[in-house]
């Protein structure tokens, strides 16, 4: 198989790149470092066009791949504009950053890469960063009448307005946001792991008074535990049997009529597996059905199929022929 030669290596190393680019940028450079395997260069905001031109023309970073914005509200210059460059001949990428605030514009780089016009419009739309010299700096992702910049950290999650199609006006209308319920914060902590707050519904429960902590004492050994000692019935009193129980059972038997006792005894002897009842008001089992004589066989009727299945004699044709 023929070997394919390519001017760019498969994996470009960062070795020596930071020092070479830092020396090339000179006073335009504010800070240089390596983060997540990529070279990151921070340059002065007013010199961004000159710095990118030098990286493109002298160090072969030909393509502008992306322009991104980052918001750090706690900083004096809260926004970072990040330019991502690619060298096709070296197969290497770098990031160039500048910082700015809400009022200070960043010089445009549409003079170097015309595609930067759309990328700068995205950063302006999402973060509100201004770009001086952009020939068409207007919103590109949100609607014309949109308020605010959605990617800012202080932008509300619900926005300021909501839109819907009105059947009455036959157009899309904007209205103030109305929520059925307020936004809730979920910390995804399991209550069984010990949450440091009151769970919903627990505020209705009565507080449980906590007593003093039990004092540790030395256990005294006085024989085996009651659960270990087997239970025995050596006396009649332990089982409830005895003369008193026999007399009580005799009283209950004496209250029954003698006729009922004899009837139960005789019925059990005759059919031991059948339950016996002695109360007259209880229903008895039904008597056996009388035997009826067998029916006489029916006379033949028109529905009989025998005549229809009999073989008929063949009719001889006229003229004597068979």
CATH homology superfamily of the domain at 17-132: NADH:ubiquinone oxidoreductase Nqo5 subunit
Which topology of the domain at 17-132 does CATH recognise?
A: Beta Polymerase, domain 2
CATH class of the domain at 17-132: Alpha Beta
Q: Trace the largest sheet across and list its strands.
A: 1-2-5-4-3
* Head-to-tail CA distance between termini: 97 Å
- Arithmetic mean pLDDT: 79
Describe, in plain words, how this protein is organized in 3D.
The protein is an alpha/beta fold and 322 residues long. The chain has a domain at 17-132: NADH:ubiquinone oxidoreductase Nqo5 subunit (Beta Polymerase, domain 2, 2-Layer Sandwich). Helices cover 20% and strands 17% of the residues. The protein has seven helices and nine strands; from the N terminus they run αββαββββαβββαααα. The protein has helices at 17-25, 48-58, 116-127, 236-239, 243-254, 258-270, 306-309; strands at 29-35, 38-43, 63-71, 79-87, 92-100, 106-107, 131-132, 161-166, 171-176. The protein has a five-stranded mixed sheet with strand order 1-2-5-4-3. A hairpin with a 7-residue loop joins strand 3 and strand 4 (79-87). It is elongated and about 125 Å long. The model has no long low-confidence stretch (mean pLDDT 79).
């Amino acid at each position: 198989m023929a070997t394919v030669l390519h001017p760019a290596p498969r994996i470009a190393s960062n070795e020596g790149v930071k020092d070479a680019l830092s020396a090339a940028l000179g006073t335009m450079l504010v800070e240089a470092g390596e983060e997540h395997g990529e070279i990151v260069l921070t340059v002065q905001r007013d010199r961004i066009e000159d710095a990118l031109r030098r990286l493109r023309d002298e160090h072969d970073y030909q393509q502008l791949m992306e322009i991104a914005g980052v918001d750090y509200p706690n900083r004096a210059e809260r926004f970072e504009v990040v330019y991502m460059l690619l060298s096709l001949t070296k197969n290497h990428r770098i990031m160039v950053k500048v910082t700015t605030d809400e009022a200070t514009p960043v010089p445009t780089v549409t003079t170097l890469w015309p595609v930067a016009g759309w990328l700068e419009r995205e950063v302006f739309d999402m973060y509100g960063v201004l770009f001086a010299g952009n020939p068409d700096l207007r919103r590109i992702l949100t609607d014309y009448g949109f308020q605010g910049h959605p990617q800012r950290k202080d932008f509300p999650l619900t926005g300021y307005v909501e839109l819907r199609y009105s059947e009455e006006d036959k157009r899309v209308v904007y209205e103030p946001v109305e929520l059925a319920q307020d936004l809730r914060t979920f910390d995804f902590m399991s209550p069984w792991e010990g949450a440091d707050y009151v769970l919903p519904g627990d505020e209705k429960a009565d507080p449980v008074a906590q007593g003093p902590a039990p004092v540790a004492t030395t256990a005294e050994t006085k024989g085996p535990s009651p659960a270990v000692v087997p239970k025995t019935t050596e006396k009649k009193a332990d089982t409830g049997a005895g003369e008193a129980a026999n007399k009580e059972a005799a009283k209950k038997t004496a209250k029954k009529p003698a006729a009922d006792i004899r009837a139960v005894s005789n019925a059990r002897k005759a059919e031991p597996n059948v339950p016996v009842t002695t109360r007259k008001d209880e229903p008895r089992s039904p008597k056996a059905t009388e035997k009826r004589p067998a029916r006489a066989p029916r006379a033949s009727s028109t529905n009989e199929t025998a005549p229809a299945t009999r073989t008929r004699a063949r009719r001889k044709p006229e003229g004597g022929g068979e």
